[in-house]
UniProtKB/TrEMBL annotation:
It comes from Thlaspi arvense (Field penny-cress). This is Thylakoid lumenal 17.4 kDa protein, chloroplastic. Signal peptide: none annotated. Keywords: Repeat. Pfam families: Pentapeptide. The lineage of its organism: Eukaryota, Viridiplantae, Streptophyta, Embryophyta, Tracheophyta. InterPro entries: 5peptide_repeat.
């Protein structure tokens, strides 16, 4: 039986054995696709081997396995689901910095493969790029699954952009205009958003841990209750911002 899950995780060999005269030998293997591959998935493969007179044994499919094998396979699957995490994990290992000399200009084209789903033929690597005061090239672009760590967008016009599943830890967005944008599941951890404008912006599932939200404008922002609670914990939001958001 195979279970496919959209996730990223290291290889994890697991074996379950039981000593008896007719010993079922159960094994499980979890395989991981590389981060840079699109549509990566984890495969859980379960099989059974019974020891024969020759000591070599033979394999059977999962279906005739006794209860022990079924339980063991369920355990492996549960472990897989527990350890599998979204694209932006706490201790995620990012791919090496792209050597493409024109990688920063790719932002002006955007992600045209998977759109908001964050699927791409190769990473949209914008790390350490400088888009300070860009008033035309980023507007309305789809930057899904973009790697933005260390990039500078200060004063840029990013109205109507689609940033889904982007990784913007440590980036600078001071004074950026995010009006009418879709900001979905973006990691803004430790980023500087001082004076940024989120007007009529869809702001869902994004995290702002240790981010600077001083003087950020939240006007007619579309945000879920749980996401709102998380944002309200950020102590850099001024009183006006907290009032607009409805923080208690």
């Amino acid at each position: 039986a195979k279970l496919k899950i959209s996730a990223l995780m290291a290889s994890l060999p697991v074996q379950f054995t039981r000593n008896s005269l007719s010993t079922p030998y159960f094994s499980g293997r979890i395989r991981r696709s590389a981060f840079t591959e699109p549509r990566s998935f984890v495969t859980v493969h379960c099989s059974v081997r019974e020891n024969g007179d020759d000591g070599q044994g033979f394999k059977k499919s999962l279906f005739p396995v006794k209860e022990l094998g079924c339980i063991a396979c369920a355990v492996i699957s549960a472990c897989t689901l527990t350890m599998a995490s979204p694209v932006i994990a706490a201790n995620q290992r990012l791919p090496p910095l792209s050597t493409d000399p024109n990688r920063c200009e790719q932002a002006f084209v955007g992600n045209t493969i998977g759109q908001a789903n964050g699927v791409y033929d190769k990473p949209l690597d914008l790390r350490f790029c400088d888009y300070t005061n860009d008033q035309s090239n980023l507007k309305g672009k789809t930057l899904s699954a973009a790697l933005m760590s260390g990039a500078k967008f200060d004063g840029a016009d990013m109205t109507e952009v689609v940033m889904s599943k982007a990784y913007a830890v440590g980036a600078s967005f001071k004074g950026v205009n995010f009006s009418n944008a879709v900001i979905d599941r973006v990691n803004f951890g430790k980023s500087d958003l001082k004076g940024a404008v989120f007007k009529n912006t869809v702001l869902s599932g994004s995290t702002f841990e240790e981010a600077n939200l001083e003087d950020v404008v939240f006007e007619d922002t579309i945000i879920g209750y749980i996401d709102l609670q998380k944002i309200c914990r950020n102590e850099t939001i001024n009183e006006e911002g907290r009032l607009v958001l409805g923080c208690r």
